[in-house]
């Protein structure tokens, strides 16, 4: 058996890559949209005796990390045909992908995990959670009557794109784990309907001056076998608001669909204001699940890339990193908050010691150093160093990635 690990050589191999991914994930719609946005050099595949057997893609993203733009590799389309499983193909493709990201100076890798158990083996740590609301709009009234002075405008996705893109950029700039969106990502993710052919609507809120301050991207469809004829369900792909007035105006607009008996918000940040603004927040049926998993590809560049919650100096020891051996060692982080300098140091006595997966969670702001220590995933020299680590890695916003990829 001869195994070759390499990118797709051309568009023909890219189509085979798409066929395998569609099979592995039992996709009814295929991979046409994703393939149109994928370059062959973004792929890493395993070929067994000349036949493609395992796939992996890495999209070149720029992602906000505590308000700072950082290059990251968006790992996607990871799959192996069942007749080639248990041969170590995924490990080989993942290692090659990590090496390639390191060479391309992408210090962090992110992905949505079909199974977390797969990726924790490769040093990925939980970097964000996502929230889903599913509720009866008749029961989800606001606690206080909103003072809405603007108005809602209904647009198609083509009409809305130039209007809402600046709103999204302003909203995303200070945030944490939000991807800089290309036109392709808007098309294949944000504007993608749950069912092919279903119209996607965009409601834009303009304030009293006519300035766009928020928007909702959503679909509406009839509910099969519903007891009431004409019953509808609204699915919201994204709700972005630059202030509370915009958020409340969009919320009330969504609730104003008289035939809707269910509204589902499918990508909600953990620090979304709904629980604070609703009269009865339990009707949201709030569900939290794992979202983005992150892998530290280059410790020094990753530590230098982000902004910190305080000024200080901390030494960080990373235990043996089998997948990215160049990372193992001890680093001194010195930051004034907005900027940081990092250098390798030698000798015992690091302020904190942790494994690659825990470092990813800490960098993202998903877990604090104290939480990781209580879980046995981080060791600190003393309580003062632990509190310092908490202060340094604090983020202004909860980590949240609204886009699938």
Automatic annotation (TrEMBL):
Q: Which SUPFAM superfamilies match?
A: Acyl-CoA N-acyltransferases (Nat), SCP-like
Q: Which PROSITE patterns match?
A: GNAT
Every copy of the N-acetyltransferase domain together lies at 3-148
Which keywords label this protein? Answer: Transferase
Tell me the domain of life: Bacteria
Record Pfam families: Acetyltransf_17, Acetyltransf_9, SCP2_2
Q: Which InterPro entries would you find in this protein's record? A: Acetyltransf_17, Acetyltransferase_Eis, Acyl_CoA_acyltransferase, Eis_dom, GNAT_dom, SCP2_sterol-bd_dom_sf
One GO MF term attached to the UniProt entry: aminoglycoside N-acetyltransferase activity
One GO BP annotation is: aminoglycoside antibiotic catabolic process
Q: Spell out the Gene3D superfamilies in the cross-references.
A: 3.40.630.30, SCP2 sterol-binding domain
What's this protein's name?
Putative acetyltransferase
Instruction: Please name the source species.
Output: Tepidiforma thermophila (strain KCTC 52669 / CGMCC 1.13589 / G233)
């Amino acid at each position: 058996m001869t195994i070759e690990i390499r990118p797709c050589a051309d568009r023909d191999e890219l189509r085979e890559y798409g066929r395998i991914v569609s099979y592995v994930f039992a996709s009814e719609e295929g991979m046409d949209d994703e393939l149109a946005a994928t370059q062959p050099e973004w792929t890493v595949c395993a070929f067994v005796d000349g036949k493609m057997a395992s796939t992996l893609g890495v999209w070149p993203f720029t992602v906000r990390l505590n308000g700072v733009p950082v290059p990251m590799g968006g790992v996607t389309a990871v799959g192996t045909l069942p007749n080639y499983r248990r041969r170590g193909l995924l490990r080989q493709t993942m290692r090659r992908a990590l090496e390639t990201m390191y060479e391309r100076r992408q210090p962090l890798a992110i992905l949505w995990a079909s199974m977390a158990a797969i990726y924790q083996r490769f040093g990925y740590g939980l970097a964000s959670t996502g929230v889903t609301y599913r509720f009866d709009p008749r029961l989800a009234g606001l606690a206080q009557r909103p003072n809405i002075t603007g108005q809602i405008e209904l647009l198609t996705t083509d009409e809305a794109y130039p209007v809402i893109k600046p709103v999204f950029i302003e909203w995303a700039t200070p945030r944490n784990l939000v991807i800089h969106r290309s036109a392709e990502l808007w098309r294949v993710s944000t504007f993608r309907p749950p069912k092919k052919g279903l119209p996607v609507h965009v409601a834009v809120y303009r304030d009293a001056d006519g300035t766009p301050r928020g928007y909702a991207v959503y679909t509406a469809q009839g509910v099969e076998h519903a007891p009431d004829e004409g019953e509808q369900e609204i699915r919201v792909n994204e709700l972005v608001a630059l202030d509370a007035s915009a958020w409340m105006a969009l919320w009330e607009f969504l609730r104003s669909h008289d035939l809707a008996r269910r509204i589902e918000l499918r990508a909600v940040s953990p620090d979304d204001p709904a629980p604070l603004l609703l009269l009865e927040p339990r009707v949201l049926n709030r569900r939290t699940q794992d979202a983005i998993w992150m892998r530290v590809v280059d410790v020094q560049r990753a530590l230098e890339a982000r902004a910190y919650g305080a000024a200080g100096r901390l030494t960080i020891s990373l235990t043996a990193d089998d997948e990215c051996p160049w990372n193992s060692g001890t680093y001194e982080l010195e930051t004034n908050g907005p900027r940081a300098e990092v250098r390798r140091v030698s000798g015992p006595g690091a302020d904190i010691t942790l494994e690659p997966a825990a470092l990813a969670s800490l960098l993202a702001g998903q877990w604090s150093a104290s939480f990781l220590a209580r879980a046995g995933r981080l060791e600190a020299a003393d309580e003062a160093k632990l509190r310092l680590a908490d202060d340094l890695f604090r983020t202004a916003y909860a980590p949240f990635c609204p886009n699938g990829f």
